Amino acid sequence: MQSWTDEVLDFWFGLTPEQWWRDDDLDSVIRERFGELWEEQRTQPASSFLGSPREALAAVILFDQFPRNMFRDHADSFATDHLGLAIAKAAIERGYDEAMSEAERGLLYMPFQHSEDLDDQRRSLGLFTALGDEDQLRYAKLHHDVIERFGRFPHRNATLGRAPRPAEVAAGEVVPW
Q1: Which InterPro entries does its entry note (predicted)?
Q2: Four-CA torsion 136, 140, 141, 146, nearest 10 degrees
Q3: Where do the domains of the chain lie?
Q4: pLDDT digits (tens, 9 = 90+) for 31-62
């Protein structure tokens, strides 16, 4: 029987990077295959997902990336961001990322890029710079610049029921990626 860790990793890394970010059909597949797992596991503390580098990476995908697919344009898209970020921070602290491929490290670092905290965004820049992938670094810079300018991602306002701030209104829709 395949563990949930292997199931998540085999599924995600069985896709092409183009599918990760741009395949609308993927949303329903992830929801059907992993929605129940996400619901079951989301109440666990971050420390329970640090048994190995693979487990930590699978958990980051489960809590940071999969909700963006399963709940696109709904507040639940961000409901477990805090958990994904806590796991990523602890995994890096333990040096788990050192044994990962470039693609795996990019996914492990993604919660920093998704964070609305400027310190996390600064760390994202450092992590993606060290990764050496110019395309991923470009996106990390774009995310950082939005947080540096507004302190949050204005394009999430409607989804999260937040009122736009005057500077956000003046800037228009700010989604540079």
Answers
A1: DUF924, TPR-like_helical_dom_sf
A2: 140
A3: 1-114, 117-176
A4: 999 999 999 999 999 999 999 999 999 999 99
